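In the design runs reported in the main text, the only information available to the sequence generator was the tokenized backbone. The following block is the verbatim input for one such run; it is reproduced so that readers can re-run the procedure and compare outputs position by position.
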């Protein structure tokens, strides 16, 4: 059945949609779905982000379609046409679909097994039906009236009002949701403790670049220029975020600390406390707080009792900037993730005598081509291929089970491509792993925010002995001048860089909101039982508290659905 041309794919997809429309009316849709089917809803029918796998999914889908007064599903009139594709090692017919509910226009992706039954179906909200805004006058009748800049400064000041949405954190995660809120016309303020917009990138280590290509990392509404490099340096990112705030008219307060908030149950709003740049205090009462402090929210500093003996310099990787002052000096970098390798390579380039200390097995994948293979939907022809919106819809249509299967296939392929590098590392004593169930680095990121390295040259330095490698278990104790090994030998160090990662946003919640809110909100990051990210971009157990974080692509895609949920909540208040 999958040997035909695209016309056959269109016929098969349209035939399934016709049968589904009939079965929906009779209430017997389960026969049209495979036993291992997955329905993923992105706010369109359930009002939240969730996945139902197995036979119960079709029945729930049918009920939700009725409850939402959904129109008949059709092939999408403008998105990529039905096609034959291979997904997670399975040949399928893949088609974009469209339908309406009483609140929104929606789209999604349908995938059919060779036997004609649906394997996966995603339903995603795309456009809310809102009253038309009155047209903006071309010119004010009174030429003395405030101009655009006057109005922007007044809007940013929040002198006589509170925001409806308070976003805590002004990196790419915070800015993407703020831009979405702007589109919905919902008054939003972003607060960040850094001195300048973009400093959360600008102040990181000297040689940092993104490790995936530019096409994956665009932000909503404003794609990066075509003239930019494939791998964007940190300072270009920082400057882009600063420009993005101005262009997208995002209200942003720098040097502002979020001191915490209490939930006002009676008024369904927050009592949020801020310390401003001048040291003054401000209490605000937003309906919603979006925590956008990133996966890298709190430094992770493992308890190493003997480390207190060390009399040299100890810094976390987030505090490390440049290695020129360590030329010809012995240094140790604790950890073997991406930051550890990049900092070690940077120190080596400045002539430092570097020892990397491995604490646990780590996945290593060459940045090209291997690391990029996991972003396959964003590779290929950008001039004639699917648009960014279409690729995002395809990307967000997969249930976790399918993502894992796909990544297992890719990881096996990557091992063969990188075989020479991996064998060399093992000879040097480097301990490798490939993620839980061989699912590769993306699953490591989604569960622990690290545990992998995109090789841009440091692996070769380890293989060639230019950078020393020791296992942390072979350290007996830290001493004033370095470490003493279990065999009694000593290794000198004047600097220890703790490239030990971050705790994530969950570590902040009890501190900022208290135990009651933290308990109601629950786990942040990692996976829920249904395979969705825990409390990310969707409703939490605590009303009015939302979370966003992750890579540029995750924030771009899921800020859209987070924004719709907040907008729908605000519609019920009116």
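Verbatim output:
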């Amino acid at each position: 059945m999958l040997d035909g041309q695209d016309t056959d794919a269109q016929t098969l997809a349209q035939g399934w949609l016709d049968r589904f429309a009939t079965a929906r009316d009779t209430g017997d849709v389960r026969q049209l779905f495979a036993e291992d089917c997955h329905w993923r809803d992105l706010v369109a029918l359930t009002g939240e982000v969730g996945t139902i796998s197995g036979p119960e999914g079709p029945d729930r889908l049918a009920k939700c379609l009725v409850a939402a007064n959904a129109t008949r599903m059709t092939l999408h009139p403008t998105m990529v046409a039905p096609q034959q594709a291979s997904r997670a090692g399975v040949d399928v017919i893949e088609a974009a679909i469209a339908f309406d509910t009483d609140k929104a226009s929606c789209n999604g992706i349908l995938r059919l097994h060779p036997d004609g039954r649906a394997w996966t179906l995603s339903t995603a909200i795309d456009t809310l039906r809102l009253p038309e805004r009155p047209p903006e006058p071309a010119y004010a009748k009174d030429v003395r009236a405030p101009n655009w800049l006057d109005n922007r400064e007044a809007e940013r000041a929040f002198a006589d009002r509170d925001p409806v949405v308070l976003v805590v954190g002004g990196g790419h995660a915070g800015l993407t949701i703020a831009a979405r809120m702007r589109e919905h016309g919902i008054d939003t303020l972003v607060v960040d403790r850094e001195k300048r917009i973009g400093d959360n990138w600008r102040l990181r280590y000297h040689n940092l670049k993104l490790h995936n290509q530019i096409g994956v990392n665009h932000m909503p509404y404003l794609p990066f220029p075509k003239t930019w490099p494939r791998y964007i340096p940190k300072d270009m990112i920082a400057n882009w975020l600063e420009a993005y705030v101005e262009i997208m008219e995002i209200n942003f307060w720098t040097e502002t600390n979020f001191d915490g908030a209490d939930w006002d149950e009676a008024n369904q709003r927050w009592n949020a406390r801020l310390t401003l740049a001048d040291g003054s205090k401000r209490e605000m009462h937003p309906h919603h707080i979006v925590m956008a402090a990133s996966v890298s929210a709190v430094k992770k500093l493992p308890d190493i009792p003997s480390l207190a003996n060390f009399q040299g310099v100890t810094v976390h990787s987030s505090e490390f900037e440049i290695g020129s002052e360590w030329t010809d000096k012995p240094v140790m970098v604790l950890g073997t993730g991406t930051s550890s390798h990049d900092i070690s390579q940077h120190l080596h380039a400045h002539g430092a005598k570097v020892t990397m200390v491995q604490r646990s097995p780590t996945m290593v994948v060459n940045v090209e081509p291997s690391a990029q293979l996991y972003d396959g939907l964003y590779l290929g022809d950008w001039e004639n291929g699917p648009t960014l919106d279409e690729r995002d819809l395809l990307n967000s249509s997969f249930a976790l089970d399918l993502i894992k299967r796909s990544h297992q296939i890719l990881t096996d392929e990557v091992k063969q491509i990188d075989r020479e590098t991996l064998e060399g590392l093992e000879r040097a004593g480097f301990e490798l792993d490939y993620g839980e169930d061989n699912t590769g680095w993306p699953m490591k990121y989604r569960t622990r925010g690290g545990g992998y390295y995109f090789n841009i040259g440091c692996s070769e330095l380890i293989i060639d002995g230019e950078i020393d490698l020791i296992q942390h278990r072979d350290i007996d104790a830290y001493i004033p001048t370095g470490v003493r090994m279990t065999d009694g030998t000593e290794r000198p160090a004047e600097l220890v860089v703790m490239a030990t990662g971050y705790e994530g946003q969950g570590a902040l919640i009890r501190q900022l909101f208290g135990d009651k809110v933290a308990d109601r909100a629950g786990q942040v990051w990692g996976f829920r039982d249904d395979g969705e990210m825990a409390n990310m971009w969707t409703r939490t157990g605590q009303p009015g508290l939302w979370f966003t974080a992750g890579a540029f692509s995750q924030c771009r895609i899921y800020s859209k659905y987070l924004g719709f949920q907040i907008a729908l909540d605000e519609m019920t208040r009116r």
